[in-house]
Amino acid sequence: MSSCISPALIRQYLYCPAAAYYTATGQAEPPTERMRKGKEAQREAVEAVAKALGAEQVVHAPRLSGAGICGVVDALLFIRGRPAPLEVKLSKPGRAVPLHHKAQAAAYALAAQAQYGKASPGAYIYYAETGEVKAIPLTRDLAELVKHTAAQIRRMMAGWTPDPRYHPAKCPSCWYRKICGFTQTKVEKI
Ligand code: SF4
């Protein structure tokens, strides 16, 4: 039987497969103080977003499981009887919501609709830094991306090693850079 894959790992794999590899092999970055404080403050934000979206029910921090996906989402809203996960991020979205954020949200929506047996219209992401709420419709393309990524992660857990490349916009500020074997073939200029 195949194991269920967490939406957070799907997000991480799409950002950098090597980072997901480290997490999956027990070398995950520990939560920072900022992350811990953010989680403590998020209940209030969730209630405000749920009200603004007209949700009739809010479930805080439920574990969702279904369609080969499992994980704890910040909240599950019910809007016109349909489940819509809500993810809180401490960052800002940038000019467009990054694909790895969309895929994480879609993964929660896939799990929610399998668990509750009701079609999910998609998920929402609340970006605390800017106060924006972004709707992420559960499109066929996003659902396919989630399934494909989950399959790649299962391969990785079964022994396959991904082959990411050095990325100038990601690696210099990456927590894993000191241990990252995926960037060590790069010849440093002196
Ligand atoms: S250092 Fe670069 S390749 Fe390695 S995990 Fe970080 S982002 Fe990925």
Structure explained in plain terms:
The protein is α+β, with helices and mostly antiparallel strands and 190 residues long. It has one domain (7-173): Lambda Exonuclease, Chain A, CATH 3.90.320. Helix content is 39%, strand content 19%. The strands form 2 sheets. A 5-stranded mixed beta sheet has the order 1-4-5-6-7. Helix 4 links the parallel strand 5 and strand 6. Helix 1 packs across helix 5. It is globular. The structure holds iron/sulfur cluster (SF4). Residues 16, 18-19, 164, 167, 170-171, 174, 176-177, 180, 182-183 line the site of iron/sulfur cluster (SF4).
What is Rg?
17 Å
Low-confidence sequence ranges = 186-190
CATH architecture assignment: Alpha-Beta Complex
Any idea of the CATH class? Alpha Beta
How big a fraction of the residues is strand?
15-25%
| CATH fold name | Lambda Exonuclease, Chain A
Mean pLDDT: 91
Q: How would a textbook summarize the main sheet?
A: 5 strands, mixed
Pfam families: Cas_Cas4 (PF01930)
GO molecular function: exonuclease activity; iron-sulfur cluster binding; metal ion binding
Cofactor: Mg(2+); Mn(2+); iron-sulfur cluster; [4Fe-4S] cluster
Family: Belongs to the CRISPR-associated exonuclease Cas4 family.
Structure keywords:
190 residues, alpha+beta, Lambda Exonuclease, Chain A, 5-stranded mixed beta sheet, two-stranded antiparallel ribbon, 5 helices, 39% helix, 19% strand, binds iron/sulfur cluster, CRISPR-associated exonuclease Cas4
